[in-house]
Amino acid sequence: MTLIDRYAVFGHPIKHSKSPRIHGLFAEQTEQVLEYTAQDVPAEQFSNRAEKFFAEGGKGLNCTVPLKELAWSYADYRTERAQISKAVNTLALQADGAILGDNTDGIGLVTDLVTNHAIRLSGSRILVLGAGGASRGILAPILEQSPHSLVIANRTADKAIKLAAEFHANGSVIGCGFDGLESRQFDLILNATSASLSGQLPPLPTGLLAEEGCCYDLAYGNEPTAFVRWGLENHAVKSLDGLGMLVEQAAEAFFIWRGVRPRTQPVIALLNAERPLIADYRK
Ligand code: ATR
What we know:
The chain has 283 residues and is α/β, with parallel strands linked by helices. It has 2 domains: 5-104 and 246-278, Rossmann fold, CATH 3.40.50.10860; 106-243, Rossmann fold. Helix content is 38%, strand content 21%. The protein has 11 helices and 12 strands. It has a 6-stranded mixed beta sheet, with helices on both faces. The N and C termini lie far apart (52 Å). 2'-monophosphoadenosine-5'-diphosphate binds next to helix 6.
């Protein structure tokens, strides 16, 4: 009897996750036979549930909020990018039975920016809003693109300063509070705060976005986020949410598990077509 290869996303809450749909579309497109489910897993149950999943023959897991740090600890060993980001969103069973931890969020973001939207990172002045887990996961892949400079601004300035210090070796990066942004200008502003999730916006000075500048919110929804709206109001040439990043990080996880790289464009197009309010806003 051949058992179907099983994958899942663990998170809490998980009800509205698009990951089963995305991986289902990837599997169909690449003619891979697999099952991918979403499972509601609170933090306190994570290690038991992951143990059970792999013991019962599961091949790989995605881990989302609030489990990425726990997944990092759970992995037997980690890729360099996961090691740096201190968070794991992809666990993969290896041939020897060990569990590899990787983080595909940063590469997912960079691919969406550079490949899908032709937004230049090299030589650009980049601002990252927020100094939590989401920011940590994207800093190294962004710095690899050789931006002119990278500023991390956070409500709690101290956290931004400390986070920037950790990445000094990777390039020009400084941290500050939102008040440190007065009279500065950026070509690309990335929102990695969790403010969008509650419809809020960090306090941003006017004139922050350079002419021809772009905005990108790592969060996404069926309507434009508060930050995507801010970008458009501040004349961003592109003001995007994180749906493309979601699909790209999933494609990278799919590749790690299956050794096959799915085409992401048709999946992004399909998911966008199901968000008419976003399409209207972009017109
Ligand atoms: P995540 O893993 O999503 O990054 P996190 O580690 O809890 O979550 O970090 C959340 C980030 O969003 C932090 O940078 C937080 O700022 P503080 O460090 O000052 O708490 C930021 N954040 C959350 N709500 C915010 C708001 N309303 N305005 C500005 N920043 C906010």
